[in-house]
C-alpha cells in the first residue's frame, strides 16, 4: 500500500516516497531553468524543489491538521550509492595530491567546530539559556546534522534537564540544512567572479554533465558496468563495516562503501575487463550519471520531508543562534578556507562544499559543489577531500568534542 491514512496522519510508503522525490527533482530543475537567479547563484535543483514541497506540505498541515510522514529507507540506500561512486572516482594519485589540502581543511574544520560551539553557547547565554542549548545549536546539530542531534538530544535532556532538547536539535539541524543549501553557490560565485578564477585543466564532472553541452552517449552496458562496480563495492563496504563494528567502532555504511570504492579503483582496473570486457568505470559518464541521480533524489527526499510546522515555537532563540552561525560560517569560508586552500578555482569549489559542511550535511556539501561545477567547471580535488573530511573525520572529532564541551562549559 502506497498510503496509510490514520487519524490526522498520512504515511507514505518507501516506493512512493522515492517516486515523489524524483518528481520533486524534476520540478526543482524546471524552476531553476525558469528563474534565472536560482541558476545564477548555483542553487542545487533538489534544494529548490525540496524546499518548495516542504513548504507546501506544511501549508497542507496548517489548513487540515493532517501530517504527512514518509518512509525514507530507500533514501538512505541512495546515499550509499552516491558515496560509492565518489570512491570509485578516486585514484591513488588523486589521494596523494589531496594529502596536504586534506590535512589543512581538516584542521580548519576542527577549529571551526570549536568556534561554532562557542558561538552557540554565547548566543544562548544572551537569552538566559544553558550552555547545552548552545551546543544543540552548534556542532551537535549543524556540522553533526540530524543524526547527531537525534543521538545526543536524549542524553542532554536527561542529564541537564532540557526537556525540549530533541526539538531544539531537530529545529537547528533543519534550518541549518536550508541555510547550507543556499550558502555554497553564492559564496563560490562571489569568489570566482572577484578573483576571475577558472579551472586550470578541463576535467570530466564527478557528478552530472556540463551545462549547455549534450551529455555523452551511454549505452546499456556502460550503465550496467557502473551498476555492477557500485554493487561490488557496496558488498565489500558492508564486509568492511562489519569488521569495523567487531572492533567496537561504529561508522555509517556509506563511509565504508566510500573506502571500498577507493580500494577497488586502485586494485581492480586491470582485471575488471576480463570479467566484463570493458574498463573499470572510474570517472566514466555512467558513474557521473548515477551519482547525479542518487544524490539529487536523496537530497530532494530529505528536504521535502522536513516538518517545518514543528519548529515554529522555537523560532526566536533558534533563528538568532542560526543567524550568528551563518555569519561566522560565511566569514570563515571567505577569509580562512579560501586563502588556506590556495585562492584558486579549486579553493572556490571547496568553499561551496564547506558551506554545506558548516551548517548542513555531507550530501548538501556535495550538492553545492556539483551545482558550482556544472556551471563553472569541475574540481576533482574538491570531490576528493571534502567528502573525506565531512563524511569520516568530522563524526570522529564531534564524538570527542561534544562530551568535552558538555563537561567544561
Give an overview in words.
It is a single chain. The chain is mainly alpha-helical and 409 residues long. The protein is built from 17 helices and three strands. The protein has helices at 14-34, 36-40, 45-64, 73-88, 92-97, 99-126, 131-136, 145-160, 165-195, 220-246, 253-267, 272-276, 285-304, 315-340, 345-359, 362-376, 380-408; strands at 3-6, 9-12, 67-70. The chain has a three-stranded mixed sheet with strand order 1-2-3. Helix 13 (285-304) packs across helix 16. The longest helix is centred in the middle third of the chain and has 31 residues, at 165-195. It is globular.
Layout of strands and helices, then pairs:
Elements lengths: L2 E4 L2 E4 L1 H21 L1 H5 L4 H20 L2 E4 L2 H16 L3 H6 L1 H28 L4 H6 L8 H16 L4 H31 L24 H27 L6 H15 L4 H5 L8 H20 L10 H26 L4 H15 L2 H15 L3 H29 L1
Parallel strand pairs: 2-3
Antiparallel strand pairs: 1-2
Helix pairs in contact: 1-3, 1-13, 3-13, 4-10, 4-11, 4-13, 6-14, 6-17, 8-9, 9-14, 9-15, 9-16, 10-11, 10-13, 13-16, 14-15, 15-16, 15-17, 16-17
Please describe the structure with a list of short key phrases separated by commas or semicolons.
409 residues; mainly alpha; three-stranded mixed sheet; 17 helices
Amino acid at each position: 500500500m502506497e498510503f496509510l491514512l490514520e487519524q490526522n496522519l498520512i504515511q507514505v510508503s518507501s516506493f512512493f516516497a522515492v517516486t515523489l522525490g524524483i518528481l520533486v527533482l524534476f520540478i526543482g530543475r524546471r524552476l531553476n531553468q525558469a528563474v534565472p537567479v536560482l541558476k545564477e547563484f548555483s542553487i542545487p535543483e533538489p534544494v529548490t524543489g525540496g524546499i518548495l514541497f516542504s513548504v507546501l506540505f506544511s501549508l497542507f498541515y496548517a489548513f487540515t491538521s493532517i501530517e504527512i510522514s514518509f518512509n525514507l529507507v530507500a533514501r538512505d540506500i541512495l546515499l550509499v550509492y552516491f558515496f560509492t561512486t565518489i570512491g570509485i572516482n578516486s585514484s591513488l594519485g588523486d589521494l596523494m595530491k589531496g594529502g596536504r589540502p586534506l590535512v589543512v581543511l581538516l584542521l580548519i574544520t576542527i577549529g571551526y567546530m570549536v568556534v561554532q560551539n562557542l558561538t552557540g553557547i554565547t548566543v544562548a547565554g544572551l537569552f538566559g539559556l544553558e550552555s547545552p542549548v548552545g551546543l544543540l545549536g552548534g556542532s551537535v546539530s549543524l556540522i553533526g546534522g540530524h543524526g547527531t542531534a537525534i543521538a545526543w538530544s536524549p542524553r542532554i535532556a536527561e542529564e541537564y534537564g532540557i526537556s525540549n532538547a530533541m526539538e531544539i536539535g531537530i529545529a537547528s539541524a533543519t534550518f541549518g540544512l536550508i541555510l547550507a543549501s543556499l550558502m555554497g553557490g553564492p559564496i563560490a560565485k562571489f569568489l570566482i567572479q572577484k578573483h576571475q578564477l577558472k579551472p586550470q585543466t578541463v576535467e570530466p564532472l564527478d557528478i552530472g554533465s556540463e551545462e549547455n553541452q549534450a551529455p555523452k552517449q551511454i549505452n546499456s552496458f556502460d550503465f550496467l558496468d557502473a551498476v555492477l562496480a557500485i554493487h561490488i563495492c557496496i558488498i565489500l563496504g558492508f564486509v568492511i563495516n562489519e569488521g569495523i563494528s567487531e572492533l567496537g567502532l561504529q561508522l555509517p555504511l556509506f563511509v565504508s562503501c566510500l573506502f571500498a570504492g577507493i580500494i577497488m579503483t586502485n586494485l581492480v582496473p586491470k582485471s575488471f575487463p576480463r570479467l566484463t570486457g570493458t574498463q573499470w568505470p572510474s570517472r566514466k559518464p555512467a558513474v557521473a550519471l548515477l551519482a547525479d541521480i542518487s544524490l539529487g533524489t536523496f537530497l530532494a527526499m530529505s528536504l521535502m520531508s522536513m516538518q517545518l510546522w514543528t519548529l515554529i515555537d522555537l523560532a526566536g532563540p533558534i533563528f538568532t543562534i542560526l543567524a550568528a552561525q551563518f555569519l561566522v560560517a560565511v566569514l570563515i569560508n571567505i577569509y580562512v578556507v579560501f586563502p588556506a586552500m590556495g585562492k584558486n578555482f579549486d579553493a572556490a569549489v571547496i568553499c561551496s562544499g564547506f558551506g554545506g559542511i558548516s551548517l548542513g550535511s555531507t550530501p548538501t556539501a556535495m550538492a553545492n559543489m556539483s551545482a558550482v561545477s556544472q556551471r563553472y567547471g569541475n574540481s576533482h580535488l574538491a570531490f576528493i577531500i571534502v567528502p573525506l573530511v565531512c563524511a569520516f573525520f568530522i563524526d570522529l572529532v564531534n564524538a570527542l568534542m561534544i562530551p568535552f564541551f558538555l563537561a567544561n562549559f
